[in-house]
């Protein structure tokens, strides 16, 4: 009987180590990645709002004035008379000229991609949480079996 109890104890320790070291770490990493993706989505939504404000001809019929950081917190005033076309950073230090509608389409497409990534990560998080619950249920079953065998 002592051999069976020690086998159950070692199995419980292995399961608890797996839960704490593997599953919870995986859950933490997925959560961090989800936070980064959500930050990217919020930045894109903010970018879309900024684009709408800058290109609104009702607010700026003759263009708009702005300050541009030219480096080391030195600013320069700029006047933009025409906002029908703009340069957007598309990644890897590359910029592309877009019309306003193309820029909106581009931002919407990027938002959809990041939302799909977020959904994929959420599914992984749900799966990992389910694995943790299942493993905890198994540990509880082993504890119950151990207690029934001892009594």
From TrEMBL:
UniProt xrefs under SUPFAM superfamilies: Prefoldin
Pfam (any one): Prefoldin
CDD domains from the UniProt entry: Prefoldin_UXT
Top-level division of the source organism's lineage: Eukaryota
Family of this protein: Belongs to the UXT family.
GO CC, any one term: mediator complex
Signal peptide feature range: none
Protein name: Protein UXT
GO biological process, one term: negative regulation of transcription by RNA polymerase II
A GO MF term: transcription corepressor activity
């Amino acid at each position: 009987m002592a051999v069976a109890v020690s086998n159950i104890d070692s199995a419980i320790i292995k399961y608890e180590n797996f839960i704490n070291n593997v599953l919870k770490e995986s859950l933490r990493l997925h959560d961090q990645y989800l936070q980064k993706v959500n930050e990217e989505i919020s930045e894109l939504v903010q970018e879309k709002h900024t684009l709408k404000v800058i290109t609104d001809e009702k607010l700026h019929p003759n263009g708009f004035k702005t300050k541009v950081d030219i480096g080391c917190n030195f600013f320069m005033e700029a006047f933009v008379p025409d906002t029908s076309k703009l340069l957007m950073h598309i990644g890897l230090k590359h910029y592309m000229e877009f019309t306003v509608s193309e820029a909106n389409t581009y931002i919407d497409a990027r938002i959809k991609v990041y939302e799909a990534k977020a959904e994929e990560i959420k599914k992984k998080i749900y799966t990992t949480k389910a694995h943790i619950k299942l493993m905890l249920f198994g540990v509880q079953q082993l504890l119950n079996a151990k207690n029934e065998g001892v009594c």
